[in-house]
Amino acid sequence: MFKHTVEKLLAGDVICQTAFADEYEYLQSEANRLKVDEFLQQLERSLTHFETADAFYCTYNSVDDSNRKKISELFSSMRSHFRPLVEWLDMLLQATGSDAPLRAKDSIKFTSLLEAFEHDQTLAEQLRRLTNMVPFKTSRVELRDQLGTVFQRLEEMGYLVRHAQGSNSYYATARFDLIYLLIEFLNDSEKLELPEIQPEDPQAELLL
User: Fold this and answer.
1) Helix or strand (DSSP H, E) at 47
2) When comparing pLDDT for 189 and 4, which is higher?
3) Beta strands 160-162; 107-109: pairing state
4) Contacts of 48 by beta carbon, 8 Å cutoff, 6+ apart
5) Separation of alpha carbons 133 and 146, rounded Å
6) Is 12 helix (H, G, I), strand (E, B) or coil?
7) Preceding omega of 135 cis (within 30 degrees of 0)
8) Which residues contact 147 (CB under 8 A, 6 or more apart)?
9) What is the pLDDT of residues 115-146, one digit of tens each?
10) How far is Cα 68 from Cα 75, in angstroms, rounded to an integer?
């Protein structure tokens, strides 16, 4: 399990109870966490615990010329998905009538959301616009297909996990919580050399 856990961390996965139950359980042991962290330290990285979502991910210990380009590319890629993801989360709040954003372990049901979209023309139009944007872009025109594409892409990207194989109910993973953290990080201008941001020396540890 050590090997699988380290490989997922180095691949940029966020290990939480809903997304990677076995690896999450492995990291509940302090001895295992220390073992993983000691290995990552040799690569100048660390095992970081995201307390709010009870999740684990890998961070660089520092930013220098050897990794600055890779980190910048990572954040640029993630920022390109921010707008459609935030728009989706806003639509979800409207559809469910909730006043709290989607968090790790929250449950959402496809059929219930579809019914909400079918009975609200504004939401249906917002969904149509959303599915013209990457990563949710599709040529499908039926509302069910458009919403299905959004769920499929969120599952592929690791934001949603099915309750069971073939189920239309999903659990949110800690990736949603990490989005909120990263948005705060970027809004605080953490001086990383990113497009449209004037750089200085980075001060905070960064997501791998």
Assistant:
1) strand 45-50
2) 4
3) unpaired
4) 56, 57, 58, 59, 205
5) 12
6) coil
7) yes
8) 110, 113, 114, 117, 127
9) 999 999 999 999 999 999 999 999 999 999 99
10) 11
